[in-house]
Amino acid sequence: MFAIDAKFIYKSNQTSDFTSYIYYIMDSGNSEGRVLVWRRTAWNNSTALYGELVDLMVKDTQFTCGLANLLDSSEVDAFAKTIVNLFSAANKTLPLIKYLIYNEFTSKVMAEGEGSILRGNNIVNKIEGAYVRLIGANYLRYVLSDLVTRVVQDKDLRLEIDPRKLATYNEEDSGYEQAITNPELQLQQNRQALLEMSQMFIDRITDPQVVEEMPREIRAVADYTAESALKYAPESLAPLVGGFIMLRFFSPAIVTPEYSKLIASDIVPSRRAKRNLVLLAKVLQNVSNGVEFGGKEEFMTCMNSIVTDNKPKMSKYFQMICKDPTSPTQKWADLEGISMQQGFVVCKPTGAGGKQPAATSKWMVTTPSTFSPIQNGGNNKSAATVKLTNSNGSGAATQLQQAPTPWDGYIRHVEIHDLFDLHRILDLYREKVAIKMAVSCRATLRILELLKDLGPSPKTKIEKKKKETEEYDQQPSGNLNSGFDDFTFMLERARFLFQGPNDKHDKPVFYLIVNRVKPEVFDNINPLIAHIFKVMDSCVNLSSYTLIVDMSWCHISSEMKRAIFTHLPKLAEVFSRKYKKNIDKLFIVHPSAYTRAVIYFMRAFTSRKLKRKIHEVYNWKQLTTYIDTENIALPETSKDYITKSYRVVKVNSKGKRQERLIKFTSNSLLNIDPKTKRVQNEKRIDEIEEIASALGSIEISMKFKSGGGSGMTTGATNNASSTSSVASPAQQSHKPRGPIGFLSLKSGGNSSDGVRRYVCNHELERDHIIQDIFEAGFKVGLAKYPNSQPSSFGHSGPLPTEYRVIKVNNAGKHQERIFKLTIDSLLNLDQQRIKSENSFAGIEEVALDFENQDIVWMKYKSEPHKRKIICRDGEGKQLFEVLTEAIHKYQKLIDIQEGDLKLAAEESGYL
């Protein structure tokens, strides 16, 4: 497929220009050497641009569905999750799902037959699954938590009925030999136990009182499916409705209860418990769709009696869930955002052929909503219900026009990472969108214009590395160790894993320095395994040991996540149980949102004993309790760590290279010298005029406003004269690569042009810097729009991120400091020098003094006592509120990271 150049984007609204647009795409040729350019309007106007982009997709469901049909299978999961999050913010997910379901039936019944409807992992199923998991999390816990916990904790519960797996299944028994003495008797007992336990789940799920608590949104999706099935595929009604409610909703939660939080965090399902849950899910699935067992799973045929016995109960259950308890005649109207505003109501009878509607029934067939959405403020359950009658006064299903809602009514409820995901997918498929959808979807041309204004996606998915990995996997077995010695030397030189001096009890201590772990480490798994054996094996097999995982300065990319989950299964198989059994303590030094999510996620793969050995360390000095200070082998930089930052090389006007750290606040970019720990300067996001980087390069050039002042009150140097000059993007694209793999740019020239060059460690790190610039611009843009929910102190706009305070230390000494909030931490500055940094994850408590509201009390997790902070007049409330809000958002980020981890694990085939 030909590539589209960033500068060739359709500008006109006239359809007649579409031919020339295609010509420009085809003429752009090879993408090698292409320069990616972002101009200041991209991030300064990102709120408006992203807002309109989402609004167009929300209003034009035809475009959203058309885009879904263009996606490769590898993108469907991520796209479904993103779309559900964006449409839910606008309260328009149900109309989209309704449209998708009707479209699925009408397009496939005639073309492919009933058996093809809602089969496989198509976009309808993916979006349904993502939506019901979002809506029904609390309901799942209400229905299933007690039963699932009982299954997981019952060590005597045996449900295995597959004779081929019985021996392995029984290995967890202490009396293993006795357990297999009479396998036929045990199978008979297990069958009876599975029948009884399955019936308990069925009775619980179908209990009328339990059904009453089911979210109406889930019931609406079931009803849409039932209505379409009655009209187009009546013989498949039970399998289709049952498949949705069980396969997409209940079964995933039962099989993986730790992720659905059906069990307490300290409960770890055993291998037998996991198998028991899988067997229960199998039975429930067939009971729900009324299909008897047979074929490939012959051993399950003994469960057919429960399938036939429960058919009446399931039929009644389906009828119950497809009823709208709030509005029986005009079902789900409020959830679909139907408006009664004058001028927006259009009633159409839904009887056959457009004639008088048939009598209202439980399974009434309605037509899909294809009209513009409106915002439905407030909670769905408390929204007003709409009841209409047709011209004859009889109750009938109606199709109602909806009033459009401006995007600024819901943009605050959208997560920026979802916008980045949408931007990436649209950017990746914009050629196909331009060619295949410009005529059929009216929103297409405007969306292409918005993509031009936004520039290239800041969240680039790197296919090159994936391709290289596939080529490596296809190599003959004899070549697996090619370059083994060179790769081993690289691993040793990286020094990401090493042994330090023993602890106070003379036990060995190993260090894993995460910021030294690069994705390339996983390119060749065999030398990696050999290296770990070489460093750890002799000690681990002989005695207990301590592992210190240093997360200081690290930033884990999505590529790294995929690499980890791709290779974790093999690593788990290769290393003996002693690696887990003999570990005495595992310290996570300076954990961030991502690492805390990792700890939570890994609970599913570790024993209960190991979980008790994990300790979070928010100040490296906490390690002195276990290891003598002089024997702590952490890098010096980890003792004054920066949570989320980017280690780069800044190239000045004379070509001199200077190590720097780039760190972000909510509206600015900090340039830090890692050696002196000084903030050299601070640039506001709106001062960046342009960013350029060649495709595949790890170098960024930033052009700033000439003469722009610093946002810091510390007197930090911010002269444009300290910056360097670079060649134009056109010149850069033809320059050869330098010896260390980054684009060679012309240095020298007039330094007053306000251009800086930064060399990153990796292309993905470059992309993350661009993402953070976009995110800061987006947050600044939100301030332009009124907030319908002001803070508890009455603030509706953004609060300052910098405060002059007096910090009272443990000895009672008063110290003048500047507190500066970054995107994930609180910096304690003495003028320009960073004295300390505390991650929001490490702040346990923030309190406002009752008697003097210019005093804020802070409790760090690494310290036993609260710290007293004295603020300027009137700033105490602001500091308290801005810290409280930042910590709250940080906790939300942890939840998002947990979800991303699960998705990365699923994409890698780990789950």
TrEMBL record:
A single GO molecular function term of this UniProt record: GTPase activator activity
Record domain CRAL-TRIO: where: 484-646
Source species of the chain: Heterostelium pallidum (strain ATCC 26659 / Pp 5 / PN500) (Cellular slime mold)
Keyword Cell inner membrane: no
SUPFAM superfamilies recorded: CRAL/TRIO domain, GTPase activation domain, GAP
Composition bias, Low complexity: 713-733
InterPro entries the record matches: CRAL-TRIO_dom, CRAL-TRIO_dom_sf, Ras_GTPase, RasGAP_dom, Rho_GTPase_activation_prot
Segments for region (Disordered): 709-746
Swiss-Prot/TrEMBL keywords: GTPase activation
Name under which the protein is recorded: Ras GTPase activation domain-containing protein
Ras-GAP domain mapped to chain residues: 75-289
CDD domains: SEC14
Gene: nfaA
Superkingdom, taxonomy of origin: Eukaryota
